[in-house]
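Worked example (supplementary).
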Amino acid sequence: MARISAYHRPVLGRTIVDFSLSDEEKAVRETARTFIRKEVMPLEQEVLRRERAHEHGLRLDELRELQTKARAFGFWGLATPEEYGGMDLPAVMQSLIWTEIGRSWVPFRFGGEADNILFFANDEQKAEFLRPTIEGDRISCFAITEPGAGSDAANIRMTARRDGDDWILDGEKTFITNGNDADFAIVVAVSDRDQDVRAGGSTAFLVDRSMGWRSEFIQTMGEGGPASLVFDSVRVPGRNVLGEVGQGFALGMQWIGKGRYIIPSHAVGVAERALRMAIDHANTRETFGKPLATNQAIQWMIADSETELEAARWLILRAAWTVDQGADARHASSMSKLYGARMVNDVVDRVLQIHGGMGYTRELPIERWYRQMRLLRIFEGTDEMQRLIISRDLLRGFTEIGGHLA
Ligand SMILES: Cc1cc2nc3c(=O)[nH]c(=O)nc-3n(C[C@H](O)[C@H](O)[C@H](O)COP(=O)(O)OP(=O)(O)OC[C@H]3O[C@@H](n4cnc5c(N)ncnc54)[C@H](O)[C@@H]3O)c2cc1C
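After joint prediction of all chains, the assembly is encoded as:
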């Protein structure tokens, strides 16, 4: 466990704040780093080549093969409880591992994971949806966003109407990650128009593609892309309600909450790798007869990037540490998502600038990061929604300024 900020240990009769990682954390991080260096990074140039040819950088079967190798290495189900074969790692360790993943632009992630809310499934649903998802035999997607409801997720309009023991779903979801590949969708729909969506009016359903929904790929500025899901009187058996009827919005918010420290953890790895490239380039590229690195303009870009990276790193680790304490991590997680997403965009922008024209080419991964990282300021709560949460906590007195140190 990281002993960040709130952990104090006595040294020579004084109490100090200990920012060090534990030996166990360092060992797990090192093992993940080794795996990614040996097995994932060698694929990097091929990923760029394929993407330039408008192909998938990494095919699904290749991803699964890598995940199986990682399983033999001991990495399987970072967040998955041990009873389902996972590692059930503390949030701080998960954060550290996601940073390692972020160092490579190969679209890799460790296997053995499932959407956190799938663990609310009952025993039959676990056998049908959760376990096959963990094993990688089925692909899920989570769908709350609609054409008329993104940031304002409580404005969803998809209807779920009872018909005997079944429910009939009508409406459209949009921007759904994995929507084109998924075997089933976890869909939040309005199940009682007379109640507030946030308080009993919505329900989550597990809906197989074979029940009749269809997906349409959406081209985006990033590699890969989400999909729209169209539900035209899709009949869903009552046994496919996830959790309780009326619990849909709460489950949705729980799904989104998980990403708020994972997303910026990944971003830290991206920013670290990109900054390393900029430093190497600045030291070797010469203009006007001397290395780029001798110019103050370049030095400041490097200094600002390192400073912002360090700030993001600690915001994220503290958010993850708050999760591990079993405390309410929403405020800390929103700050880490807001800052981490901004940070990586600013760092990649500077790294691109330092590389000049080469940074703009598709020979290097920088323009790819530039496109890909822009998403981080939009999905799973935009910058503005994070600001809304942070300021609301302060304005309504839910959180004290710097309250955790008081
Ligand atoms: C690639 C991608 C993958 C995604 N994956 C998923 C997924 O798997 N599942 C899913 O359900 N959704 C997914 N989303 C949807 C994503 O969560 C939404 O796009 C996001 O929540 C923003 O909603 P919106 O696009 O409707 O923008 P809007 O809500 O229309 O907002 C537009 C802009 O206005 C700002 N804004 C809105 N309201 C306010 C306000 N009150 N004050 C200040 N500013 C405001 C927003 O911050 C934003 O900048 C994905 C989106 C993308 C692009």
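Two points are worth noting when inspecting this output. The pocket of flavin-adenine dinucleotide is lined by residues 142-145, 150-152, 175-177, 220, 226, 375, 378-380, 382, 384-385 (CB under 6 Å). DSSP finds twelve helices and twelve strands in the chain.
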